[in-house]
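Notes on consecutive records. When two proteins share a document, each keeps its own sequence and its own token line. Never mix them. Below: protein one.
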Amino acid sequence: MQESTPAEQTPAPKQFKRGKVDLLNGPIDSTLRTFAIPLAFSFLVNMLYSWIDTYFVSRLGASAIAAIGVSEQLGFFIFNFGSGFAIGTGIIVARRMGEGDRKGANYTATQAVLSMLIFSVSLAIGLYFGLDFILNVMNLEPEVARLAKMYLAALLFGVPGNFLTFQINSIVRSTGNSVFPMMILLMTTVINAVLAPILIFGVGPIPALGMTGAGLATAGAQLIGGIISVSMLITGKTGIRLMMDKLSLDFALIWRIAKQGIPASLQMFSVSISRIMLFKFASGFGTSIVAAYTLGLKVDLFVFMTVFAVGIAMETATGQNLGAGNIKRVFLFHRSAMKQVSIVIAFLATAVFLFGDHFAGIFTNDAAIIRETTRYLHTAVFGYIFFGVGLVTTRVISGAGASFRSMVIVGGSLIFLQVPLAYSLSQYTDLGPQGIWFGVVGGYILFTGIAFIELSRRKWLSAKV
């Protein structure tokens, strides 16, 4: 890619005339909230995808709940193949926007979307034919494995749409627009909510497809979302426009995106691997423990919607402000993020501790599952604030372009600290499955400490984007 000339660049302040959040000049606390709230709502809406499937599939029994839990973790693992590339794209687009180089942002977006389309289709095909091997490695109970395969085989058809939607949402967010991603996710969730009961249980001439129907409902919604997102980028209605005359692959730029994206993918892989390992530990104590962990994770992720939203806001704010040379604002945003996240999570953690059992009761009337879910939540809540502070801290580092450093922090903390701790406490003490829950909390505490140490060293400020 050729560098744009000064005449092709747009001064940074002018890029916010279309109602986007001004991350370069706006007041810190309110700007962060304004940008993060639609993101939080987007994540909340996205969470409804899995909640919808779990709600309807739970009527099929405990094995179906466990299959959904395992499938979601495998789906998250699969999604990581492309999500890191999308995150890397967002980091570069945010830096170009901070520099006032809109043409460079458009060109980066074009190359990223084209690459994602090719990659996602190829990945979906490969995974479809490798699904039996993947599930065999999990060593699941036969019925859980059978149901998980039915769900995932259908879900894979939506991978291209899902990847493209995430890619485009990441690009648009990096310009300061957090409303567009929210609207796309809201639309696709409504579509999924309509299709799921029809395809799972059948209506009129449509047969009951069970787990396959749940997967098809989600895949259909994802494909529709991907098509609409691409069309909006082609027309330029998001503030970023695809350059249709620049569709030849620019491997130099793609590699620059990949250098940011590969560590981001590995970071998310580490989260997925750690959860899969925790599911494996839980399966050693029976299906009810796996189901309890599945439901407990849903509560965790609901609470963490705020954390993820503020984390992305921090990543975008860091990229734009470093591009504009406003280093001081990066640290002001970080301080504000820690404060606001801690307040919100403290409130939510209290609510989870008091009413977590009622949530489990929505999805099952099995007393053992409700009891174990409640036990998990009563332990996990003590790690919530640590996780929140640690995540927004690592997002500062990745937003600066130091994706490898961020990956080492997250991956090292989860795989090499949290997982061994959970295994040791559950296998070599009298805690049993609760040892896994204590290990989760301990891992979050260690993760936060490591993140702060790396932030204070400031070596991430020298990263090139």
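Protein two starts on the next line and is unrelated to protein one.
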Amino acid sequence: MNLRLHLLAAMLSLALMGMPAQAQQPGSSNPLGAPTPTNPQAETPEQAPTATNAPVADTRPLSGAEDIGVGLRTRGRNYVLPSLQIYAYGDTNRSLITMGETGTELEGSVTGRLAVQHVSRTRQFTMDYMGGGMFYARESSLNATMHAIGLSQTFTGRRWALMLGDRASYLPESPFGFGGFGSLDTGLSGVGGAFGMNLGSLSPAFSMGQTLVSGRGYRISNVTLAQIQYNTSARSTITAAASYGLLRFEESGLIDSDHRIFTLGYDRNLNRRDSVGVTYGVSMFRFRGLPQAFDDHFVQISYGHRITGRLGFELAGGPEIDKFKSSLTDSSLRYYWNLHSALRYRWPRSDMALTYSRYTTSGSGLLLGAQTDEIRFSASRRFTRSWSGSFSPGLSRNAQLEETTSSSVHYNTYYVGGGLQRSLGRYTDVSLNYTFQGQMNKSTDAAGVSINNTLNRHVFGLAVSWHGRQLEVD
């Protein structure tokens, strides 16, 4: 409870600091198994850009803590936007992601959301909060609550910009392929980009990497970050970023972890659309109550291509060296490579996002560090004024680091989801949604005994969504 109070106090203090400046990219991924969010700020497909709603360029650096995107559809405004979703569904794994156990359970959830933005000449403040609960028809002991919040405070000067941010969540299960609430954006890593309206998605190196289905039980995730950017010339930028992340589990048997990361990067704009960059960083992974710990030093060479309002593409990769504080092998050093690529494209009626990442993570509570490969795709399409659809698959592979355990463990986790949505008016939508979630665990213990476990889960249901009128504020 003390940890939750400390997190809440930290987020509230950031929220009270003020109101920031530079507009950020709306999340381009669509919630898996959820209706496509309606953004009252976005122009309809029939609208042509005008002087007041022309897209705003995305100027975030390649070497920063957030992924680049296609830019905002409209210029920054001061607003408050509430929304509500009621979701009824069936879940074929009623014990909620328990290996080998099935049994369909009828469930429901109610989630509310509040988005706030305040923009001035030199500052911008953005907040997105979502909270609610899920309720079971027969297994009332499985009833759960959910809270997630994202905050961003930006200050800009003539040649510099400072960003402070926090992404926190309190969830009953892993966010990777989270199909029950119909609200979480599982197309992005953890809660880092879960809210999608104005908060950018965190680069994988800064996220807590929750890409494993780790069983039923509450978990707290929090990433607090600071980034400063200085323009050395009209085309060159130096960026330094630091963050502290934690992952805590209320259920026993899972591994609590801490993650600190520091990066320093240099970006160079080749022209209006193309840029290159180089980044050095160190990630420090620690596990509560355990002697295992390691530092991950990495270098990334980056390339970015942006067409405002249409395309955002980035490709970054390079070597990394892991130095282990307590190694079970003869060597305390291990050499890997990292890669992150992201493509986001926007048509008049459609949005698409495809990402692939290979990076070192804390192990999502099941492993003492892991090499993680992760690929996600999401697409949404407006067929007519009233009908739209979405499709979102994802796959991750997590391999236990050999230096931290005497056994060999590999997890393959995957999900596929989609939804069909119909507008019932300007502020109300109804949708049919489906999510499949699966995981295969292949492990070999110290004695050479092979163990395999498989999870298969289907979630299907009906959602009714309402969003209020965007309230303009001074």
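For the record: Residues 2-472 form a domain with the Porin fold (CATH 2.40.160).
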